Amino acid sequence: MATNRTFTMIKPDAVEKNYIGGILDKINAAGFRIVAMKYTKLSKEEAGEFYAVHRERPFYGELVEYMSNGPIVAAILEKENAVADFRTLIGATNPAEAAEGTIRKMYAESISANAVHGSDSDENAEIEGNFYFSSLERF
Ligand code: CMP
Question: 114 CB under 6 A from ligand 1?
Fold first, then answer.
């Protein structure tokens, strides 16, 4: 059964361009409640650990470099059917393929600098949320 939580990051490209407010507006307007939120920066080691599932992929080095390049906003979001609905809201990984009105269509510049992350499963939402937040940091 689907859980009602997902995990997101507003990535360095979107933070750098002052898109945090616009992206949070879209998230709230779509009915997600913010359970936890943090403005922070990943070290290279942390970015490597967060994306360890992609370690064998050709883009892994670029991804780790990029994600540790500047501050990000990490958040746990709550809504019925959160994982699937959030992935619909953000659009395809490659913004060139993202549907009109999605966050990546509006704010992303490329497949690596693609504005936001969204968990791809309930299991990963749990793992990714735990990477950033203790139980005391969730409300
Ligand atoms: P994200 O949803 O954060 O999950 C993994 C990330 O890897 C993805 O968004 C992209 O930013 C990045 N990614 C996936 N495929 C590629 C690719 N072909 N080239 C560069 N980066 C990629």
Answer: yes
pLDDT at 86: 98
Q: What's the N-to-C CA distance of the chain in angstroms? A: 23
Query: Residue 62 pLDDT more than 60?
Result: yes
CA 42 to chain centre: 13
Q: Given this model, what pLDDT does residue 2 score?
A: 59
What's the topology of domain 5-138? Alpha-Beta Plaits (3.30.70)
pLDDT digits (tens, 9 = 90+) for 63-103: 999 999 999 999 999 999 999 999 999 999 999 999 999 99
Does residue 131 sit in helix, strand or coil?
helix
Q: Is residue 31 pLDDT above 70, yes or no? A: yes
CA-nearest residue for atom 21, ligand 1, is 112
Q: From the CA of 136, how far away is ligand 1's center (Å)?
A: 30
Gap from CA of 117 to ligand 1 centroid (Å): 9
Q: How is the chain split into domains, by residue range?
A: 5-138
Scored b (16 or more CB within 10 A) or e, 92-130 reads bbebeebeeebbbbbbbeebbbbbbbbbeebeebbebbe
